[in-house]
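agent> Task received from the user: take the single chain below, predict its 3D structure, and emit structure tokens. No templates, no multimer pairing.
agent> Plan: (1) validate residues, (2) run structure prediction, (3) serialize to tokens, (4) report one or two observations.
agent> Step 1 OK, no nonstandard residues flagged.
tool_call: predict_structure(input=
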Amino acid sequence: LAKDFIFEYIIFGPKKSNFATYRFFCEISEILCIQELPFRVQSRTVSGQFSAHIWTSITAGFILSFPYISFQLWKFVAPGLYKNERSAMLPFMIATPFLFVLGAAMVYYMVIPLAWQFFLSFEISPGQGALPIEVEPRISEYLSLVMRLMFAFGLSFELPVVLLLLVKSGFVTPEGLASKRRYA
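)
tool_result: status=success, residues=184
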């Protein structure tokens, strides 16, 4: 039951024309409106669907258990910290999963729909005599792209936490960061 929900509404949600982002784009502008994403996902190996199910289960299990794992890690580390260090770390413990989820949500709701729109509308040779090229990605390629982008954006959204920790620990200063702003 959970497998059907995860694949139908989460993994392949951006493939459907009634996806929330597409409805939002259609309300904003006709130019951004996406009616249909005409592609099929294939499994070209005997174990392709099984592997996709296993890896998706592992990833979903990690995502769902992450708050508990981070809480247990905190319970392990907290007794070794001074009281002022514990109180200083608490906002970071709250911000870290929130920012990671925010980055993953940006990929899911903004980057993936726009990327699929771009990739599916891109043509090598749009001339009259050109052979039509159909996009039929393998399920492993589709899942790999989505998972890698979610992980990369989730980590990049952690940059404010990392910078704040570096400033608090004295490795960098706000003035030093401000002086390098145009290079960043």
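agent> Step 4: summary for the user.
Residues 173 and 179 are 10 Å apart (CA to CA).
agent> Done.
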